UniProtKB/TrEMBL annotation:
Biological source species: Brevibacillus centrosporus
Signal peptide span: none
Listed name of the protein: Predicted amidohydrolase
Record keywords: Hydrolase
Gene3D superfamilies: Carbon-nitrogen hydrolase (3.60.110.10)
UniProt key word Hydrolase: yes
Family affiliation: Belongs to the carbon-nitrogen hydrolase superfamily. NIT1/NIT2 family.
Length: 270
């Protein structure tokens, strides 16, 4: 499929210029090492531990400076980029991401559908609709942090043909055990690749990781240091895993709501 780069950053709260400089520097390094897909963590530009008024000041629209810059960089570098951002839309704030093709085309945006804990003081849940995104590197799904703790979104993406599910996150030390369990579990449940991209600092546990379709952790980043995690994705591992572990072939689709609608990603959860 491609060589992926998880950009595990150490954001400084509210320091958007410094965080952007760090992101571009690390991304350029990854591109120099052959990365074809770049993924940044959740809320990397703003930091995580801010009050609502601070997020309101720093949030952008989906055609704002951050997404526009990374569209230009995707075109310059010839890479696919998944870049989260704090999004403002009218009176609402969302934790969002943009998926950008190597041509600079904005393929899709996604809003975190399950807002966690104190995030509810600032952010609104996005729609619980999950659609596969067709990129030049293959079919990907995107979820954000807490979304991966529910089995249904990942399953819906897998049933639509996702080969890789990308999960930008700010995952805490207190929830580290869940990070170590749930990413491999979702990969194995659905026999797909899972790429979790976390931050360090601000109480985050790092350990960005790429998990194979059989649940094996292929590579894992530092628990405390900013770094670039690079690894090749081999799509043939999906077929091999599904030949041994026929979860999707044996799954009873009548257990899902929406009937045929789920094939187009139109199932709405909750």
């Amino acid at each position: 499929m491609c060589k992926v780069a998880a950009i595990q950053m150490k954001p400084a709260s509210g320091q958007t210029d410094a965080n952007l400089q760090q992101a571009v520097f690390m991304a350029e390094q990854a591109v120099g090492e052959g990365a074809e897909l770049l993924v940044f963590p959740e809320l990397w530009k703003t930091g995580y531990h801010l009050k609502k008024e601070e997020f309101l000041r720093l949030a952008e629209t989906r055609d704002g400076k951050t997404v526009s810059l990374f569209r230009d960089l995707a075109r310059k570098w010839g890479t696919v980029i998944v870049v989260p951002f704090a999004e403002i839309d009218g009176d609402h704030l969302y934790i969002s991401l943009a998926v950008i093709e190597r041509t600079g085309e904005l393929l899709a945006t996604y809003r975190k559908s399950f807002v966690w804990g104190k995030e509810k003081d600032s952010f609104t849940n996005g729609e619980r609709q999950y659609r596969v995104i067709h990129t030049s590197l293959g079919k990907i799904g995107v979820l954000i942090c807490y979304d991966i703790e529910f089995p249904e979104p990942a399953r819906l993406l897998a049933l639509q043909g996702a080969e890789l599910i990308i999960v930008p996150s700010v995952w805490s030390f207190g929830a580290e055990t869940r990070w170590d369990i749930q990413l491999p579990a979702r990969a194995l449940d659905n026999t797909v690749f899972i790429l979790g991209v976390n931050t360090v600092g601000e109480g985050s546990c790092g350990k960005s990781k790429l998990v194979a379709p059989d649940g094996q952790v292929l590579c894992e980043a530092s628990r405390e240091e900013a770094c670039i995690l690079l690894h090749d994705i081999q799509p043939e591992l999906i077929g091999k895993a599904r030949a041994r572990i026929p979860y999707l072939a044996d799954f009873d689709e009548s257990l899902l709501p929406g009937g045929e609608a789920r094939k187009s990603g139109m199932v709405i959860l909750g």
